[in-house]
Amino acid sequence: MSTNLSIENLTVRYGGFTALGGVSLEVPAGSTLGLVGESGSGKSTLARTVAGLIVPDAGVLALGGQPLAARRTRAQRKQIQMVFQNPDASLNPRHSVRRILSEALRFHRVTTDRASTERRCRELLELVRLDGGALDRYPREFSGGQRQRIAIARALSVEPELLIADEPTSALDVSVQRSVLDLLGNIKAQLNLTVLFISHDLGVIHAVSDTVAVMRQGVLVETKPNGEFFAGPDTAYGRELLAAVPRMPAAAPN
Ligand SMILES: Nc1ncnc2c1ncn2[C@@H]1O[C@H](COP(=O)(O)OP(=O)(O)O)[C@@H](O)[C@H]1O
Ligand SMILES: [Mg+2]
Q: Ligand 1 centre and the CA of 47: distance in Å?
């Protein structure tokens, strides 16, 4: 299931500092919006505000046309799930994978008895391509890439409509980044999810996005379909970002 995300004039201040200065964005159902921008431009603030972890100072958020108020209902918290940059910070090291996956299932009442919870846990591991034996193991027993797969499985466990991935591959070795990106791509197609994908890395954004949005100092400077953005950004800032990336198509020497 998927649904569209609508962001209108979203504003977040930290004390006197404006981290988001009126951001408006539409993410159509089943599509991936790639949000790119340098460190400190406000990407995580946007992600956390959409996820309900930060209360905005102004603006309107809606999922599937239903407004998302500052105080989210349990049903709304289920609809939007997030994957963070660092799986180590988001997985409790003292909990087995079974417990990590089943807590969300029980909290959101996706499964109600032990047998269906167990079945769902195994399905989730299959979805992220880990074997069933992983259920009895603990986060430290896995590699960084595998831990991120577990975090992805947990996010997907409750069948969200919107997945927010905030730099999900940035803490991983380059060699495993690709496999996690491929996994996210496959899952997105399989589950028809709407995705807000954040990265400072234009190569990653190029690989995953339907639409690219460029953020700078808390405002969006440019939003374009992936192919058009990489063929030639509209703004000087977009061109600057692209020119700074080695071996991107539009940055090739001419
Ligand atoms: N809790 C906070 N309190 C004060 N300033 C913050 C807080 N979180 C982020 N900031 C500031 O807001 C700006 C945007 O941060 P962030 O959204 O994390 O950017 P990004 O994810 O693009 O790196 C930065 O200048 C950062 O220092
Ligand atoms: Mg960030």
A: 11
Distance 215 CA to ligand 2 centre (A): 12
Radius of gyration of the chain (CA): 18
List, for residues 165-194, the tens digit of each pLDDT value: 999 999 999 889 999 999 999 998 888 899
Protein residue with its CA nearest to atom 4 in ligand 1:
14
Q: What whole-number distance in Å separates Cα of residue 158 and Cα of residue 79? A: 8
What local confidence, expressed as pLDDT, does residue 254 receive? 44
**241, two tokens:** 């970002």
pLDDT in tens, 120-137: 999 999 999 999 899 999
Structure tokens at 81: 């799930």
Gap from CA of 49 to ligand 2 centroid (Å)? 12
For 5-201, CATH number out of 3.55.40.20, 3.30.230.10, 1.10.3660.10, 3.40.50.300 equals 3.40.50.300
26: exposed, middle or buried (C-beta count within 10 Å: 0-12, 13-18, 19+)? middle
Q: What is the pTM of this model?
A: 0.94
Q: Is pLDDT of 252 > 70?
A: no
Task: Tell whether the model's pLDDT for residue 251 goes beyond 60.
Answer: no
Ligand 1 atom at minimum distance from 166 CA: 21
Listed by start position, the domains of the chain span: 5-201
- What sign does the dihedral 125-130-132-137 (CA atoms) show? negative
Using CA atoms, how far residue 236 sits from 37, 72, 205, in Å, is 14, 39, 18
What is the mean predicted confidence (pLDDT) over 64-93?
93
Query: Mean of the per-residue pLDDT values for the chain?
Result: 93
Indicate the SS3 state at residue 84: coil
